[in-house]
């Protein structure tokens, strides 16, 4: 079984969903230390003024796990929705996805970062990209050990035969514990994604998947993995 285990992110970029599509089971690895100024609580969008951050205010403390990060101020929800409408309201498929996003931003008050990230990621994967991957939470497995040993224990308990990792881990990951556990490690290649017409050039890949959805709609899976012929 092919498994990936990654911390949850706020409205992730398309590469995150590329990995989700590649595996049989995707584990939200949120019982790890929270890192500030990271993808956990922010992501980029294209605006008339260039790339800008959408950031959820959760404070700067790193003395907590991702799964324990509380969202105490809900005013960001209306603000993010307004900024998305301002930046993408003229995009071809903005109105197509507006009902889903109105549910996310306006229909409820989020109080936990991990819950928000996981639920939104799952909805985008299933409802917008037709991904059928099974989603799991790392806390289900009570993984033991520290750092890499803990990750190996997690994916072993999940029944993995193959572990899929992002490409940045290639430079530092030690294969020995995976080899000892009989798990094959594969590194995802994020290169050569096709460009598409964005409202606010120049083109950038480093944006939330919402940018892709608003511009190409139901054709989005082709721009993430379909162009490879897989």
Number of helices: 8
- Decide which structural class fits the backbone: alpha/beta
State the share of residues found in helices, binned by percent: 25-40%
Main beta sheet, described? 5 strands, parallel
Question: Quick check: average pLDDT?
Answer: 95
Q: What overall form do the CA principal axes indicate? A: globular
Which blocks of ≥5 consecutive residues have pLDDT under 50?
A: none
Q: How many whole angstroms does the radius of gyration measure?
A: 18 Å
Beta fraction of the residues? Answer: 5-15%
- Spatial ordering of strands, largest sheet: 5-2-1-6-7
Give the domain tally: 1
Overview of the structural elements:
By secondary structure, the chain is of the alpha/beta class. It has one domain (2-228). It contains 8 helices and 7 strands. The chain has helices at 14-22, 75-88, 94-106, 113-128, 147-157, 176-180, 209-216, 220-224, and strands at residues 2-6, 25-28, 42-47, 50-55, 134-137, 162-165, 184-187. A 5-stranded parallel β-sheet has the order 5-2-1-6-7, with helices on both faces. Strands 3-4 form a two-stranded antiparallel ribbon. Strand 3 (42-47) and strand 4 form a beta hairpin. Helix 2 (75-88) packs antiparallel against helix 3. The longest helix has 16 residues, at 113-128. The radius of gyration is 18 Å and the shape is globular. The mean pLDDT is 95.
